[in-house]
Amino acid sequence: MLDFAIFAVTFVIVLVGAVLYLYPSSRRASGIPGLNPTDEKDGNLQDIVGRGSLHEFLVSLHQEFGPVASFWFGSRPVVSLGSLQQLRQHINPNHTDSFETMLKSLLGYHSGGGGASTDSIIRKKVYQGAIDTTLKNNFPLVLKLVDELVGKWKSFPEDQHTPLCAHQLVLAMKTITQLALGESFSEDARVIAFRKNHDVIWSEIGKGYMDGSLEKSTSRKGHYEKALSEMESTLLSVVKERKSQRNKSVFVDSLIQSTLTERQVNIMEDCMVFMLAGCAITANLCIWALHFLSTSEEVQDRLYKEFEEVLGSSPVSLEKIPQLRYCQQVLNETLRTAKLTPIAARLQEVEGKVDQHLIPKESLVIYALGVILQDSDTWNAPYRFDPDRFEEESVKKSFHLLGFSGSQTCPELRFAYTVATVLLSVLVRQLKLHRLKDTLMEVRSELVSTPRDETWITFSLRN
């Protein structure tokens, strides 16, 4: 009888071991509550595809498992943080930009994304200085490009439907390319070529890599790799050209002139990340801001009043922007309500802990920003567009902690805020925006939240 009991226990242990080995769905990531992998090779990829996007998947994940949850990218466990309280606890001392880290990883780049804390701090200071210098030297160009666009809108009949997405993407492309790479991109042919490759690359890293479809299509992957190669060749050519230029006034010049080592920075890769993210974030911040303004005449009137009080009849200047507090609130609330950047990621370089959960070294940690930005525990009436909420100090602190304001703001977002402020300061003082009746904006939340389809508005002259 004892022999049978020993055999039975041994059989059960062997059976459980076999199940754990043969069926990966019984494994768990780091002991953190979450989904088991549904496929040995793809992990939870099909669950992500089934939800439509990584953001929507994370929404359902945190609804089911709470603010700290896990899932699988292929054979790799991932930890997702879905509340402000848990994000505040996360310890990751490399001080890198989480959005940049994620984007570089998707592009297959590795330079400057981690490393020693001192390197990251030095690198961040160089980037901040590059942004300040670029905006100071090129602010008149931003004004000129915005004036041209608003002048075009003023010439339209009042009942003409204006394609918001198309116009804002062109504005972002013209602005970012010239401010980042120089005056040679004032030529339409170069901007058009850049846009063709930008659209292919951004589309595939935003969705193709995230849902695994890129790897399963030979033709799409070939098209993507060709676009990436052409973009890299263009950027390498620009870097070579700018090294011999006497006029050092744009973003790439500051990187060229910096004392950063090759280990700390790869100029071509950093320009690639800045251009891709900068165009997408700038265009979509402007799109969403104008969309929300078109739904509220009261917000438009309050902006108009602030512009008149602070600027008078003069154009906005870089020095005056900090005084436009309500405009800042409008842009903050635009970013929050639209979940402009719903996802960021970091590599856990040292073992960390959130609540009672240990996060092992080298784990991938997702910041579910889109979940946090509409968490009712953090924001009152989270789905309502309400710029007044940013008058509260607690709300400002929460926003700062998420990396959307202050010293934590990513370079691309700083550019976007500047361009959007200039756009609103010119537009609102000359035109009123009107939303078309019976139109809804559906959101595609990938790396940057974008309207699924073209969205249309109309304008009328402000009396």
How confident overall, as mean pLDDT? 86
* Class from secondary-structure proportions: alpha+beta
Shape: globular
State the order of secondary-structure elements, H for helix, E for strand. HHHEEHHHEHHHHHHHEEEEHHHEEEE
Uncertain segments: 1-27
Amino- and carboxy-terminal Cα gap: 97 Å
What percent of residues adopt helix (DSSP H or I)? 55-70%
- What percent of residues are in strands? 5-15%
**Main beta sheet strand tally, sense and closure:** 4 strands, mixed
Give the count of helical stretches. Answer: 16
Strand order of the largest sheet: 1-2-7-4
Binding site for heme: 410
Organism: Takifugu rubripes
Transmembrane segments: 6-23, 273-293
Cofactor: heme
What does this structure look like?
Helix 2 (45-51) crosses helix 3 (54-65), helix 6 packs across helix 7 and helix 12 packs antiparallel against helix 13 (325-338). The protein is 55% helix and 10% strand. The protein has a domain at 29-114 and 340-373. The chain contains 16 helices and eleven strands. The protein has 463 residues and is an alpha+beta fold. The relative contact order is 0.15. The chain starts with a helix and ends with a strand. It has helices at residues 2-22, 45-51, 54-65, 84-89, 98-107, 117-154, 164-181, 188-211, 218-243, 251-257, 267-294, 297-311, 325-338, 369-372, 393-401, 411-427, and strands at residues 68-73, 76-81, 162-163, 344-347, 352-354, 357-359, 364-367, 431-435, 443-445, 449-451, 456-461. The strands form four sheets. The protein has a four-stranded mixed β-sheet. This is Cytochrome P450, family 20, subfamily A, polypeptide 1. Heme binds at residue 410. Belongs to the cytochrome P450 family. Its cofactor is heme. The chain crosses the membrane at residues 6-23, 273-293.
